[in-house]
Amino acid sequence: MIGWVAAAALIVIGSIFVVCLVNLFRAALSLALVLLGVAISFILLDAHFLAFAQILIYIGAILTLLIFGVMLTSKAKNDITPIASSRFRLPSLIISILLFAWLAAFVEFIPFEKIAQSPISVDELGSALITNLVLPFEVIGLIFVVAIVGAVASSGSSKAQGKA
After folding, report:
1. Which candidate, 116, 26, 106, places its Cα nearest to that of 67?
2. Rounded to 5 degrees, what are φ and ψ at 47?
3. pLDDT at residue 160 tops 70
4. What per-residue confidence (pLDDT) applies to 76?
5. What is the Cα–Cα distance from 55 to 32, expressed in whole angstroms?
6. CB–CB of 32/10 below 8 Å?
């Protein structure tokens, strides 16, 4: 029970920091806390492979690319203007509470017994990743390469325009 509370607290506090921090670098680091909390939840569910994949792929690869993208773009530091959000706080709080209540009521009608499937072994998962799911992983890798090249190009072009 303590583990679940700690994981939930890590996810909630990290999520609040991700949304509220103005500095994108610190928000990305807070996202690492959220992803770590999800990995802890996977460990508590005895889904060790998913926890390992969460840490390796999301924290290790995607978050690293996100941090590089934030560091390479000059807009992340200079051109951010905070939104005057004081007039939106109460309506957004009301909408958030109503959305949460609607989702909580909706969950009651989901037949969880029908959703549960037999567990898949690591061997079956590995063979599926090598055979059936190769194309999605290659496409995602290509998208990441294009994103990092775009971040480098936009960072370099803005510096070149400033010198000219």
Report:
1. 26
2. -105, 70
3. no
4. 47
5. 9
6. no
Cα 136 from chain centroid (whole Å): 18
pTM of the model: 0.56
Q: How many CA atoms lie within 13 A of 129 on its CB side?
A: 9
pLDDT exceeds 70 at position 58: yes
Nearest 5°: CA angle at 24, between 20 and 26? 75
CATH architecture of 2-77+121-163: Up-down Bundle (1.20)
Annotated domain spans of the chain: 2-77+121-163
> Contact at 8 Å (CB) between 123 and 44?
no
Asked if residues 155 and 74 have their Cβ atoms less than 8 Å apart, the reply is yes
CA 152 to chain centre: 22
Residue 102 has pLDDT above 80, yes or no: yes
The answer to which of 22-36, 48-62, 63-77, 78-92 has the lowest mean pLDDT is 78-92
